[in-house]
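[retry 2/3] VanZ family protein: previous attempt timed out, resubmitting with same input.
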Amino acid sequence: MRFYSVAERVAFLVTLIAVLVLALLPVPRLKEFGIDVGFHYDKLNHASAFAVLTFLGGLGWPDRKVQVIIFLALVGAAIEVLQGTALIARDLDVFDWVADCIGMACGLVAVICVHWISRRKG
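[retry 2/3] VanZ family protein: success.
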């Protein structure tokens, strides 16, 4: 395993934890902690988070891109279900999951381009 695969895997896991915290903390808690990151358009937050996750996952596990996509699609769906619970008291929105999937497609295109460029150079 290349050293930078380890770095990319660690970056993926740290980013995944950050996304889960941001997605699953109730809004009053986010405000209480002074957390206000992202774009003002919620769908763009979802798409960008999952694009980055897919990109890092695709670099960290280049031979398991399909598994990374399936895992992230399930994570996105789970986030939406959990956001709809009374405990978290946020909005369950299927279109947030659609934005997650669009982000995953963008991240996948980016990682495929990086792999294509690296193969052409080396």
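[retry 2/3] VanZ family protein: Residues 17 and 23 are 10 Å apart (CA to CA).
[retry 2/3] clearing retry counter.
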